[in-house]
Amino acid sequence: MTTNNGKYDPNKLNQELEEAKKLPGFGKPLPKNLSSGDIYDNFLKAAKEAGYLPPFVALQKEIRQQMDKLLNMIETESKEEDINRLIDEMNNKIKKYNMECPKSMQKMLINLEDIEWHAKIWK
Fold this sequence. Notes:
Blueprint: H1 10-21, H2 39-49, H3 55-75, H4 80-100, H5 115-122
């Protein structure tokens, strides 16, 4: 409806409508069960069926992979500087993860002294 420079463009609205018409299910009525019951649960079900994953789930996967890498670095006695750099990178991702995930799923930042405990939590 607006261009990249913020000006209104009526042609863009028509283009978006034409693209929407190509989507499966366009113009068909919504399923009746969509508006019954818990709307949030319905959304979660539809999102899951569409293959949608919240961004924090992808972050969680990245952090778990980095945790495996960190444990491997510790086992192979890598440079402490490299280990600390990875921990800092992971902690930045954990901060972002904590801002995006539900409160009950938030995790503590990682430190080298308690790495075994942190590894169990991220498994």
